[in-house]
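Q: I'm writing up a methods section and want to include an example of the input and output format. Could you take the sequence below and give the corresponding predicted structure tokens, formatted cleanly so I can copy it straight into the document?
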Amino acid sequence: MNTISDKLIIKNGTIYSQQQILKSGSLQIDHGKISMIHTSDENDHSTDYKIITLPADYHIIPGMIDLHIHGVNGADTMDATREALDIMASTLPKEGTTSFLATTITGDIKSIERSLGNASEYITSFQSEGNAEVLGIHLEGPFIHKDKAGAQPSEHIVAPNVNTFKKFESSSSNLIKLVTLAPELPGGRDLLHYLRSKKVLSSIAHSEATYPQVLEAIDNGLTHVTHLFNQMTGLHHRDPGIVGAAFLKEELMVEIIADGIHVSPEIVKVAYKQITEERMILITDAMRAKWLEDGNYDLGGQMVTVKNGKALLDENTLAGSVLKMIDAFKNIQKFTGCSIESAIKMACENPAKQLNLFDRKGSIAIGKDADLVILDENMDIFMTICKGKIAYTREDTVYSL
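A: Here is the clean output for your methods example:
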């Protein structure tokens, strides 16, 4: 891995800081934190700093945060191995992701518990410098509706149950940060109440909930929507459904897979105009085939065929994605016409705020973790920095040190 000194200065380029946009500024990093931001190259650099000088048309943005990712580069959270999470954490900086939630899938209770235990041990003991940080766990399933299973193995779906969740909570050492469930099912209300009491985010998807049922769930603690439009009740003129609630209810933060496959570009634009950058969160929902060639891959014990950017369980069932965060970042601008600042809000700021981590993640500000992505003039990734360590540099580019 290409990591360099804990003391780093990045000069030139446009810095998209929390306070303002700085052209031809400079940014100083000390021991993994952003220590200074200058409007110009005004500071007297000490010789113990490594200096990166960028072209003037490059962009420095916060590191992206993926709240919903199952796997990448042949690895999956459900593999329940340290190696799998190492592969995920070391690969994701290539696409601009500097932190993420390791996401499970519906499976038998023991396999979920193994995955949660492995993730917990990894988070507390095995995170590596220069890799993306695992911020916690997203439990997707098994508390979902069988008629909206999608690529979730339906034979392992169970009704929402507080006691079952307590087992998961124990296995994860209380590191579950987000739970996707169908709150309209028996036991859903009790689980929502429990999650709220434990300050765990509850999210709706893989659900047949009606609009009134979503409103009730919000009253009981629902605050999030998983992969908008996919495996949920759609917008109907006599029942707004989950999609309508996502459009209308300001209590809900809303994930979207902006690959143009899960949701058409036009509908992404419709959703963006309704929800706006204030509540939308870009995610990938990626599976292990991401960064690999087309072929057949496992997802939750099921065979998924990946071809031409689509991951399919069968002819009609999407099975996660192979979307990269940098492509979601570029696509949202292309599909909606939004600004780079709006895209930053959806890819960086909103997920950090939703996890209550905006004090150290999600924007470029003094004192925050030095999680940064440097984009070239085409918005392609030139470099990714995780807590002050260079995690990825594009091979075909030489930068000035």
